[in-house]
């Protein structure tokens, strides 16, 4: 644990060493970062390690890791992306050099379940896939099939093929090595980083049709130089790692430039947004940094909403809503001074188990014990 990008007060904490020695704790060359559903830790992939790490969101310490080098189930060759499927209690890992997606059970020690895909250019074949995004509303998994210059759409239930988006090219709806993907659930949009075309394309997440694009090659605001990854925040703002320009860029849902976060000569590659607490995690060179969205994007405060906390159990949401209603009536009470965000954190501390979602059928005493073990 070191302080990266020294002197920038917006950084809450950093993970990894600026000059790594090759150990897992150094988090050398991070390739993906994803927040756990409960916000307690991060899932990280990093070259040249062929496994997935879990690191604490409190101090960045290494909690555990899973996977090893190989081509079998539970083995990886340069995993490039981790997606958490809370509804099905699964972890989806884009296994880049094995040209497939692996599925593992979401537990303290993830258990391999199945692998889908193989090397090739046909349906359900991949060529160096780099990223994936889950459409919770429509039950779809979007996988950037980078070497085949397309995005494949799978059912999130069965991981069966649904349809493909794009071909090789520079026109609308065409890609040249697409990389990061993200889903804007509120607007039914798919955001794709068209890496080698130095732009971002916005498509319909319903049928993959082209909507609009923004960006071109350059160094000015709104331009890119080999961008890699993208994430969407609670307001639909689009955040892109503008890798070779050594910066992050934020855009409105319509693609208008909002703000730039400069990485002081370091090359950001991956980025993620935590809906639970309004945090942004991104990698630059050999480190992962965590910042508050409010500390970067001015005049756009993070506010608590039931919809943004889709992983919280219903009983916890009901308590917060009830207290919120009481507060609106009791204008002069202490409750009236507490923001929703603080209420949510208070109830989380009172019931820390609540943030590991399970199906109703699994809510037995044995399951509760397992859930307590899962929280790290």
Architecture overview:
This protein is mainly β. It is built from four helices and 28 strands. The protein has two domains: 286 residues, TolB, C-terminal domain (Neuraminidase, 6 Propeller), CATH 2.120.10; 68 residues, no CATH class. A four-stranded antiparallel β-sheet has the order 1-28-27-26. The chain has a four-stranded antiparallel β-sheet with strand order 2-3-4-5, with no helix packed on it.
Largest sheet: 4 strands, antiparallel
What's the N-to-C terminus distance?
18 Å
State the share of residues found in helices, binned by percent. 10-25%
Outline, from the CA principal axes? globular
- Mean of pLDDT: 83
Any idea of the CATH topology of the largest domain? Answer: Neuraminidase
Please state how the strands of the largest beta sheet are arranged side by side.
1-28-27-26
Strand composition percent? 35-45%
Number of strands: 28
Structure class: mainly beta
Uncertain stretches of 5 or more adjacent residues: 352-376
CATH architecture of the largest domain: 6 Propeller
CATH class annotation of the largest domain: Mainly Beta
Q: How many whole angstroms does the radius of gyration measure?
A: 20 Å
Q: So how many helices?
A: 4
Looking at this structure, what is the CATH superfamily of the largest domain? TolB, C-terminal domain
**Domain tally:** 2
């Amino acid at each position: 644990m070191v302080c990266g990008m020294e002197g920038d007060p917006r950084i809450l904490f950093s993970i990894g060493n600026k000059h790594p020695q090759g150990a897992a704790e150094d988090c050398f060359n991070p390739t993906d970062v994803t927040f756990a559903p409960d916000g307690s830790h991060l899932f990280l992939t990093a070259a040249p390690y062929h496994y997935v790490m879990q690191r604490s969101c409190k101090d960045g310490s290494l909690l555990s890791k899973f996977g090893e080098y190989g081509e079998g189930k539970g083995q990886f060759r340069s995993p490039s992306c981790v997606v958490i499927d809370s509804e099905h209690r699964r972890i989806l890992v884009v296994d880049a050099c094995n040209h497939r997606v692996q599925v593992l059970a979401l537990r303290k020690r993830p258990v391999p379940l199945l692998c889908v895909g193989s090397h090739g250019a046909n349906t359900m074949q991949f060529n160096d896939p780099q990223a994936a995004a889950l459409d919770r509303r429509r039950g779809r998994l979007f996988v950037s099939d980078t070497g085949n210059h397309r995005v494949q759409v799978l059912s999130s239930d069965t991981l069966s093929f649904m349809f493909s988006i794009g071909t090789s090219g520079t026109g609308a709806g065409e890609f040249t090595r697409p990389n990061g993907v993200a889903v804007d659930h509120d607007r039914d949009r798919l955001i794709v980083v068209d890496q080698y075309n130095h732009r971002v394309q916005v498509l319909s997440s319903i049928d993959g049709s082209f909507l609009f694009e923004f960006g071109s090659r350059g160094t000015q605001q709104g331009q890119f130089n080999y961008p890699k990854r993208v994430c969407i925040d609670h307001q639909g703002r689009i955040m892109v790692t503008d890798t070779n320009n050594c910066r992050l860029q934020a855009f409105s849902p319509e693609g208008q430039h909002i703000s730039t976060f400069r990485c002081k000569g370091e090359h950001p590659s991956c980025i993620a947004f935590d809906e639970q607490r309004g945090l942004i995690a991104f990698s630059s060179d050999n480190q992962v940094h965590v910042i508050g969205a409010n500390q970067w994007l001015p005049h756009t405060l993070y506010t608590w909403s039931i919809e943004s906390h889709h992983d919280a159990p219903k009983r916890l949401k009901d308590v917060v809503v009830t207290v919120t209603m009481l507060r609106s009536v009791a204008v002069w009470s202490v409750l009236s001074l507490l923001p929703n965000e603080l209420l949510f954190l208070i109830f989380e501390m009172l019931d820390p188990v609540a943030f590991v979602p399970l199906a109703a059928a699994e809510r037995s005493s044995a399951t509760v014990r397992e859930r307590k073990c899962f929280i790290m």
